[in-house]
Amino acid sequence: MSNMKTKKSQESQRLLDSVKEMYNDPGEVEIRIENLKIGIREAEQAFVEKFPADSHLLDIGCATGRLCFALARQGYNVTGIDVAKKQIEQAQQFAEKERVNVTFLQYEMPTLPFPDASFAAAFMGNVYCYVPHRASRIAFLAEIARVLYPNGEVLMSQTVLDSVLESYEEIYDDNHHQFAPDYETLEEGDGFALGAPHYLHFFFAEDLLAELEASPFQIVHSVLKEGKITCILRKQNT
User: Fold this and answer.
1) Whole-prediction pTM value?
2) What is the DSSP string of 155-212?
3) Which of 35, 91, 108, 218 could form a disulfide with 65 if both were Cys (CB 3.0 to 4.6 A apart)?
């Protein structure tokens, strides 16, 4: 059992490293720089309006800071974190150039470098799929809950398979079979980005919601639309 636990930990780190490699790629950084032009999205704006303008907010997987800058310009105290050092460097450069007050930190999933009860709310867009292993993903949610105030909330969005596939078997293509043999601890739904050894977990909405319900959060709202599920999660106080 201990040997399997060690193997899982080692492979988890390798899978996380593959995610960092993907998002440190110059092409990915350029995409996120272009995304700065998008600003805040409708669902994000609707969510944040329930919090006072000086609230402390956390953007998990902030990339080059699209959402962070939009929130900061509305008066919020914003911290953005990302596993990719190159994304954070771009965000910091832009913050200095535009003189926008945002804190940016590179971090290592699945722990968060903050004290308990540091934030009123958090944002997490298409990040959850990059945490290897179901138990670790649920532990990551517990870590997010730890750094939120009592009754703190998360706006979470995640791409799901519902509109394109009927079973997880369909993701096990040539790309998967090329890279999966390098790992012994992959779980159902684990896969790799097209044409590359970069890890991500594929979800059907039902399975994603089941994981969220096993966490310290209550799902207070969820919408499945165009292959993406968007949820508001509220920390359950024990």
Assistant:
1) 0.94
2) EEEEE-STTT-SSGGGG--HHHHHHGGG-S---TTEEE-TTS--EEE---HHHHHHHH
3) 91
Helix (H) or strand (E) holding 102: strand 102-106
182-189 long-range Cβ contacts below 8 angstroms, 24+ apart:
183/11, 183/14, 183/15, 184/7, 184/11, 185/4, 185/7, 185/8, 185/11, 185/12, 185/133, 187/133, 187/134
Give CA–CA dist 208/216, Å, rounded.
14
* Structure-block tokens of residue 234: 């509220």
Tens digit of pLDDT for each residue in 115-129?
999 999 999 999 999
Residue-wise pLDDT tens digits, 1-26: 567 778 899 999 999 999 999 999 99
- Name the DSSP class of 231: E
